[in-house]
TrEMBL record:
NCBIfam families: PRK02406.1 (NF002677). Binds 2 magnesium ions per subunit. Poorly processive, error-prone DNA polymerase involved in untargeted mutagenesis. Copies undamaged DNA at stalled replication forks, which arise in vivo from mismatched or misaligned primer ends. These misaligned primers can be extended by PolIV. Exhibits no 3'-5' exonuclease (proofreading) activity. May be involved in translesional synthesis, in conjunction with the beta clamp from PolIII. The keyword Cytoplasm applies. This is DNA polymerase IV. It comes from Pendulispora rubella. One of its GO terms (molecular function) is DNA-directed DNA polymerase activity. The active site is at E95. Its EC number is 2.7.7.7. The gene is dinB.
Length: 392
């Protein structure tokens, strides 16, 4: 998909059309999640700090992200993909590999199918997508990025080497600002240069990754499209305008993250038993801690309790980012919506079931009345008074 988050925001609010739009956090401490093509002309890119993006494009309009909305639109996009082949491997909410080998007798060749998908996405969702058609995953990925937005690049079976050879080395997966100068210092400027390089020299520079890079540069990529690839983790994190300096402030963010993660787990019928907490300090040092739970969980209270316990393992100091994720995921839908029941349930099992019911109620209220549902512990004292509530 082309500038997916920004494109969804512009589609939903036509007043943004034709204007430079940045989706992300606050102007001081946030990160750009997506930039419209109007904004990209001035230099902003995803993963850039919002402060830097605003220096490059001070006229940009900053829109806070709506992850639930993007997930909803993503499901519609993937439903279109699956009309043409069941072999869909999602890489993220806005990108996927499709194997259409067995679909050609129904829909035509790869180019015809790609055009049909792009047409359906535009007609039904009002969004544009770019596609690459090629014999392998790596080449298709490279091709899909070349003519954005609304692009289509076809690489025939016999044309892979000629297609890859002139492209700059930055088109290779994993070659970024740190690796590219080292390769260029050796005279390796294009994918063709990488393809003709001595594999042993690449191994000495890049380690075990070097041989893989050599193969990809020659168009050798035997990986299959893996449909229904399960998510490895579900998480949420946030960068803050002001550093968090107290344990209480950090705990509040962990509770908010745990609540977001729990709702996403509920929607996906997943549970997990490995809780991970991430903190990034004011000096940009990143630290993570994890704990394995005896049984999979999917409710806010269980996730937050584990995360709060992990907080004691971190060094004190001003924190600019916090995050919580859950891995070791299992499908809860196949066993009727929860872990296998024990013959004799203990008090902890009963409490966990109660916690799960709370998540279901929160989700139901949110679906009916919007995203304004939150826990009392996450309300500032002034907000509590404004709402006319007393909390204990």
């Amino acid at each position: 998909m082309d500038a997916f988050y920004a494109s969804v925001e512009i589609r939903d609010d036509p007043r943004l059309a034709g204007k430079p739009v940045l989706v992300g956090g606050s102007k001081r401490r946030g990160v750009v999640l997506a930039a419209s093509y109007e904004a990209r002309k001035f230099g902003p890119r995803s993963a850039m700090s919002m402060a830097e993006a605003m220096r490059l494009c001070p006229q940009a309009l900053v829109v806070p992200p709506r992850h639930e909305r993007y997930a909803e639109v993503s499901r519609s996009v993937f439903a279109i993909f699956e009309r043409y082949t069941p072999l869909v491997e999602g890489l993220s909410v806005d990108e996927a590999f499709l194997d259409v080998t067995e679909s050609r007798s129904l829909f035509g060749d790869g180019e015809t199918i790609a055009r049909a998908i792009k047409r359906d996405v535009k007609a039904e969702l009002g969004l544009t997508a770019s596609a690459g058609v090629a014999p392998s995953k790596f080449v298709a990925k490279v091709a899909s990025d070349l003519r954005k937005p609304d692009g289509l690049v076809v690489v025939p079976d016999g044309g892979v080497a000629a297609f890859l050879a002139p492209l700059p080395i930055e088109r290779m997966w994993g070659v970024g600002p740190k690796t590219a100068p080292r390769l260029r210092a050796l005279g390796l400027n294009t994918l063709g240069d990488l393809a003709s390089a001595d594999p042993r020299a690449l191994d000495s520079m890049l380690g075990s990754w070097g041989r893989h890079v050599h193969d990809l540069a020659r168009g050798i990529d035997a990986r299959d499209v893996e449909p229904d690839r399960a998510a490895k983790s579900v998480g949420h994190e946030e960068t803050y305008e002001e550093d968090l300096v107290t344990a209480a402030a950090i705990e509040r963010t962990l509770l908010r993250h745990a609540s977001r993660v729990a709702q996403r787990l509920l929607e996906a019928s997943l549970a997990g038993n490995v809780v991970v907490v991430k903190l990034k300090y004011a000096d940009f040092t990143l630290r993570t801690r994890r704990i394995s739970l005896p049984e999979p969980v999917s409710d806010t209270t269980s996730i937050f309790t584990a995360a709060r316990g992990l907080l004691r393992e971190f060094d004190p100091g001003p924190v600019r980012l916090t995050g919580v994720s859950l891995s070791g995921l299992v499908d809860t839908a196949s066993d009727g919506g929860g872990a296998q029941r024990k013959l004799f349930e203990d008090e902890q099992d009963v409490r966990r079931e109660q916690f799960q019911r709370v998540e279901e109620v929160v989700r139901a209220i949110g679906q009916r009345f919007g995203e304004g549902v939150t826990r009392a512990a996450l309300l500032d004292q002034d907000e509590k008074l404004a709402r006319g509530r007393k909390t204990r």
